[in-house]
Design goal:
Helices cover 67% and strands 4% of the residues. The chain is built from 24 helices and four strands. The protein has a four-stranded parallel beta sheet, with no helix packed on it. β1, α22 and β2 form a beta-alpha-beta unit. α11 runs antiparallel to α12. The protein is elongated and about 95 Å long. The termini are far apart.
């Protein structure tokens, strides 16, 4: 009997029985039924695809791979089985093989939206971001109402620092599905990165209202509240994230950073140790751990840990910030390398603003000082006289304040000591830059 004869001999009723078991989560019963059918119809690709899906649902991924491979060996143009093989290989971390399966599926059926979508996901994990964008765009072209594809396209655009495009993609996802909590959270994350904390908080809170168990949104909300100086509220949200997911390494680290700022270094160390135990490769956690131990005079294993620190910095790992390193290793070349890694990670080149053109010559040179510390703070004590002593015949002095408007002694002195004091704490970073450009600032400090 040929393969096509066997496919036709397999009745619709027999297939529907297996599908019904699968849809009801009766995977073992479905497997038993399929094996019985296999005795009668030994070379039917559909049956191997179905049994592979059951194995995958049971977490038996290697068995699923074998079944899907058998299905595509029996029917080379079986797009669904290629796609299923790809998703299973991806779960196993075999990304290159997964990629090949998704490419096969899209070549067999160029209109296979799920295959394009999964291809985009895999390309993103392989850091082939431009190709990932194209795959998501193909999926969206086939199905413009595919909210998850719009959201994931936004994620890649964010990684490419195309923030305006990312925002549009997330907004489109929400327009399709207003209850898409993930997209609300992602918009909040972009606004937080732009310094627009009020908007960020609004979106994080919306995400949480849609999904009260959304640990990531609680963690992000905590960060936005901390940026507004609401330390207690921020800490409470970090703790909520941990309560929902005790293995949330980022939330443990964030809570540790609060305790560190509050000089509660023993509590900070506990948080950093938990985060490090959960994810030893988390960005900068090893440096936070060492720095906290140094402040608490805990010198056990210091020599080996410092050697590990050196090795990881030389391997270009994101392991420690510039200032903590200065208290641990006196090596200018290593400090420079760590600083470059930190800056390139946190402040990549942005194309958000248009190219800056030359201004016409001003009667006075315009200097803009940007700070969050125009208040009772060491920075203010050290610089207040600087603003006052500029030669006003030659210079026009602007202060851009993105910190709290305290109206304390130093705050009032600085306001009186500059020509123009701009309170920009409610503005996004982009809007601050545009505002400063509108004032034609010559020198930014």
């Amino acid at each position: 009997m040929s393969k096509s004869d066997q496919n036709s001999a397999l009745s619709r009723e027999q297939i529907e029985v297996v599908y019904e078991l699968y849809k009801n989560g009766q995977f073992k019963e479905a497997i038993s039924q399929i094996k019985a059918l296999n005795e009668i119809y030994p070379n039917v690709p559909l049956l191997f695809n179905l049994i592979g899906a059951c194995y995958k649902s049971l977490g038996e991924l290697d068995g699923a791979v074998n079944m899907f491979k058998t299905a595509v060996s029996l029917k080379h143009d079986y797009g669904e089985a290629h796609k299923n093989l790809g998703t299973t290989l991806k779960e196993l971390g075999r990304l290159d093989e997964s990629l090949e399966s998704f490419v096969n599926a899209t070549e067999i059926d160029p209109g296979f939206v799920d295959a394009h979508y999964n291809l985009g996901n895999t390309l993103k994990e392989l850091n082939r971001l431009d190709e990932s964008v194209k795959s998501y765009e193909r999926a969206i072209a086939i199905n413009p109402e595919f909210a998850q594809a719009h959201n994931n396209l936004g994620n890649v655009q964010k990684d490419l620092n195309q923030l305006d495009d990312a925002l549009k993609s997330y907004e489109r996802a929400i327009a399709i599905n207003p209850e898409f909590s993930l997209a609300h959270n992602n918009i909040g994350f972009i606004f937080m990165g732009q310094g627009n904390m009020n908007a960020a908080i609004e979106y994080f809170e919306k995400a949480i209202s849609l999904n009260p168990e959304y640990a990531d949104a609680y963690n992000n909300l905590g960060g936005a509240l901390i940026a507004q100086g609401k330390v207690k509220d921020g800490a409470n949200n970090y703790q909520k994230a941990i309560d929902i997911n005790p293995n949330f390494a980022d939330a443990h680290k964030s809570l540790g950073n609060i305790f560190r700022k509050l000089k509660q270094r023993d509590k900070a160390l506990i948080c950093f140790e938990r985060a490090h135990a959960i994810d030893p490769n988390m960005n900068y956690i090893f440096g936070s751990l060492l720095s906290s131990k140094m402040h608490l005079c805990q010198w056990d294993e210091l020599s080996s840990q410092l050697q590990e620190l050196r090795t990881r910095i030389n391997n270009n790992e994101k392991v420690i910030g510039s200032f903590p390193l200065m208290g641990l290793i006196d090596d200018p070349s290593l400090q420079k390398k760590a600083s470059e890694i930190f800056v390139n990670h946190h402040y990549p080149k942005s194309h958000t603003l248009p190219k800056l053109t030359r201004y016409s010559k001003h009667p006075k040179i315009r200097i803009g000082y940007f700070s969050a510390d125009f208040k009772i703070h060491p920075t203010a004590f050290l610089t207040a006289e600087l603003y006052e002593l500029h030669d006003r015949e030659e210079f026009e002095i602007h202060a851009f304040s993105f910190g709290p408007d305290t109206n304390d002694e130093m705050n009032l002195r600085i306001k009186a000591g500059v020509d123009h004091f701009h309170d920009v704490r409610e503005m996004s970073h982009k809007d601050v830059a545009i505002f400063a450009r509108s004032l034609e600032i010559d020198i930014a400090v």
